[in-house]
């Protein structure tokens, strides 16, 4: 038996060309970076967390518009934004958005420490638009199969709602390990997650109120927990700020649709779409911390009844990190409705899913949503809903975040070697994921299932 295994496993590689060894070596390097949230050591400032392949040869054009930051009146300062959501928050939209609607969703605002305040409109390539349409069609098909499977199942497993857990992570060794070391705190009192040594993913409401930035750029900082043992004064909250190392911010990106200023000279209530509540922060210097892999939230990995996780600094004046997990109560194309415990300071935390890697015997984790907390919002028909929300990372948001980080949504230095994610069709409860790179194909089971 051992001889047979040797012949099957070893000889084919020994008899292969040298490029096979190079391919395998490159594949392992990339996959290790994706699995553990580390960049390959030979690469500097390059995104390595791509798990989907966008169309190549795309050349987006953009139009930049300067936007002066107008001061708000006292009445504006005290106004609470009205949160809204269209059909995308009621279920799976069965009509594709037009190209102009997609481009409107891709438009963004950028603020910098040099006083930059601009709106950027991007002219997206048609191949990219069609890619989004194909993904949406695939999601609808998966959703229908999921619903059919549940309807036909005699032993349907009930969804647990409200059975949430929250644990304080106090051990210093655990705090300095992934995924807990990826959590950050913003100077506005929110949470966030590192997705590179320079980039923090958080909620737009943590940086912008729909009219203007919550803090001036020179005052905006991101805090990471100190690696050292904290003093009793720091742990109890007396000197809690010293428990963090605060890093200044260079740039902040938010979706343009998150801003809802009335026309100049007119007044009106701010109406903000809940599915656009995400932002990217670029730091002035790199952090010596692990960072999380980023992926797309799909029916397969964050569908109804699936388990999600996140950690955050829940207390405004204590450096205590809390971890929790819960099940997804309901999900739509753009948002997750879940029952994870949280506080206003938890907003902005990265919601992730995990899969047990049997080969490496480690958990592979991917951020697939941003926690935005318990919110009251209005649907198109005026119906008021009160739910616990997380904003899903869709391919469009994924591409937009990539564009903010690299200036390109289709390619990067590692894009040609990045893995391609394909979710197999039936049976739905036997979801399989194929990671394909060059000639090497590895089939991994159970990516979409909770282990």
TrEMBL record:
Superkingdom field: Eukaryota
Domain Peptidase S1: 176-214
Disordered: annotated segments: 59-78
GO molecular function: serine-type endopeptidase activity
InterPro entries per UniProt: Glutamyl_endopeptidase, Peptidase_S1_PA, Peptidase_S1_PA_chymotrypsin, Trypsin_dom
First and last residue of the signal peptide: 1-17
Keywords associated with the record: Hydrolase, Protease, Signal
Compositional bias segments (type: Acidic residues): 66-78
GO biological process terms on file: proteolysis
Keyword Hydrolase appears in the UniProt entry: yes
PANTHER family documented for this protein: SERINE PROTEASE
Protein name: Serine protease 23
